[in-house]
Amino acid sequence: MSVAFVPDWLKGKAEVNQETIQRLLEENDQLIRCIVEYQNKGRANECVQYQHVLHRNLIYLATIADANPTSPSKPME
């Protein structure tokens, strides 16, 4: 189960820290590798569950990023 999954009774009580974010990033890396492997084997239908977990993780990380603005970075040239 994804570390991003939180039961309803715990929502809003979880502490977001660097370790949690790192675990999500590592999990996403593994999910992407698994998805690619299934797709390369022609078993795309079987990777849908992993795509859902990856999507949930990415939405969770985006929500954290939006809620924690950082100092403005220099524009890319």
TrEMBL record:
Family annotation (Pfam families): SSXT
InterPro entries: SS18_N
Residue ranges of domain SS18 N-terminal in the record: 13-71
Family: Belongs to the SS18 family.
Name listed for the protein in its UniProt record: S18L2 protein
Organism placement in taxonomy: Eukaryota, Metazoa, Chordata, Craniata, Vertebrata
